TrEMBL record:
It comes from the Bacteria. One of its GO terms (cellular component) is outer membrane. Residues 1-42 form the signal peptide. Residues 137-417 form the Autotransporter domain. This is Outer membrane autotransporter. Keywords: Signal. Pfam families: Autotransporter.
Length: 417
């Protein structure tokens, strides 16, 4: 090869090598810049979980790299100062807010059932105390009842279960007939609106509207009685919650429907101790409430939640006592009642499964800590009757357990036609 040609070739080869090494250096610098600009999610998140529900969510987050808006949300968790703050953030991302929805429906079913059974107690008392000329068949045996009630309830927080405080207002109508002596057969229709506030720091809010319909029956022979009630409950839920910590905030909304069924049976004796009537009793109650699946609207924290349910089977033991006081043409009947209630199922609440609306993370789940199995129920009322045809009742009832307190006041008016 000519000397000039060799020299030119050497210059070209050297230039090529410099260009190649420069390109590699530029590529490495660009890669490093991207890594700094988009930090990977810290982790794993599992060590920060403090409940089984948070652990399930952490496993889902650790199983796939962050993407889109979720990357910014996770980066804000990584920036939190300590493990406690990160665990709280994980808890807010779980579906724990929804854990008490079926319980609110059951609370409404319980209120309706107790109101009807209190009404049946008064119907029996009026029938026993009625003069002999009061008809028991045909004309004059139809009774109607209209009642309204207010209720406040508080549920303490537990593992994967939020604190909740609720107020409710209810209206109920019942009509029954006595086809034969001492037998009552009727039907009831009612509505109940609930407004619940959960986890005060986050300020989520649930509104639930319950509609109920069902039959009831009662029979006594002067010494023993038996009552039976049943109902179907349709619930409409709306929920608003805010997820937030330093560096992240998201407002979320959801709506869902639910079905429920309730059945109760109670049997007891009718005893007298002088002027006081005493009724010891035992009962069995079944409650079923399910919530359909729902999809939240919002940002990166929005969840899609599958349907879930609560099933209860309770046994009750109790007693009530009443007496009559005549005041002119009216008879006043004060009544007190106390009962112990035991949940027979060890796992009444089903698992709740969810996933983020955005992204492709796997499903995560939680099983809320169950409420206490034992509860004490008390009630007190005064009924004023006139000529065995009309009765006005004012009453209070309370439910007390280790993790919940429920207080209710009712006013009812009943009349025989």
């Amino acid at each position: 090869m000519h000397a000039k040609s060799k020299k030119g070739y050497s210059i070209l080869l050297s230039l090529h090598r410099h260009i190649h090494h420069g390109a590699r250096a530029a590529l490495a610098a660009a890669t490093l810049l991207c890594a700094v600009a988009q930090p990977a999610a810290a982790a794993p998140y599992g060590p920060y979980a403090s409940t089984p529900g948070e652990a399930s969510l952490a496993d889902a987050l650790d199983s796939a790299p962050p993407s889109g808006d979720r990357a910014a949300m996770l980066a804000s968790i990584d920036a939190l100062p300590d493990a406690t703050a990160r665990a709280d953030a994980l808890g807010q991302l779980t579906p724990r807010t929804y854990a008490l929805l079926p319980r609110l429906a059951i609370q409404s079913m319980d209120a309706a059932d107790r109101e009807i059974r209190h009404y049946l107690v008064e119907r029996r008392s009026i029938a026993i105390d009625a003069p002999a000329d009061v008809p028991v068949r045909g004309e004059g045996t139809i009774h109607m009842m209209l009642s309204g009630g207010l209720k406040q309830a508080r549920y303490d927080a537990g593992f994967d279960r939020p604190e909740a405080r609720s107020d409710s207002r209810s209206l109920r109508f019942a009509i029954d007939v006595s086809p034969v002596k001492n037998l009552i057969v009727g039907a009831t229709l009612g509505i109940d609106g609930i407004d619940a506030r959960l986890d005060p720091a986050q300020r989520p809010r649930i509104t639930a509207f319950n509609s109920q319909i069902g039959p009831y029956a009662s029979y006594h022979n002067g010494r023993f009685y038996i009552d039976a009630t049943a109902s179907y409950n349709f619930a409409e839920y709306k929920l608003r919650r805010q997820v937030g910590w330093d560096g992240f905030s998201d407002r979320l909304t959801a709506a869902a429907d639910g079905d429920g069924w309730a059945a109760s049976g109670e049997a007891g004796a009718m005893l007298r101790a002088g002027a006081v009537r005493v009724q010891p009793f035992a009962g069995l109650q079944y409650r079923h409430a399910d919530v359909e699946g729902m999809r939240e609207g919002g940002g990166a924290a929005a969840l899609e939640v599958a349907g879930y349910r609560t099933r209860l089977m309770r046994a009750t033991l109790g007693a009530r006592a009443s007496t009559n006081v005549d005041v002119g043409s009216w008879t006043l009947r004060p009544t007190v009642e106390a009962q112990w209630q035991r949940e027979l199922r060890s796992r009444p609440d089903s698992r709740i499964e969810a996933r983020f609306v955005a992204g492709d993370l796997p499903i995560f789940s939680l099983r809320p800590e169950r409420l206490d199995r034992d509860a004490g129920l008390v009630s007190a009322s005064v009924t004023a009757t006139r000529s065995s045809r009309m009765a006005v009742r004012v009453g209070y009832s309370g439910e007390f357990s280790g993790d919940r307190r429920v207080h209710a006041a009712t006013l009812s008016l009943s009349r025989r036609f």
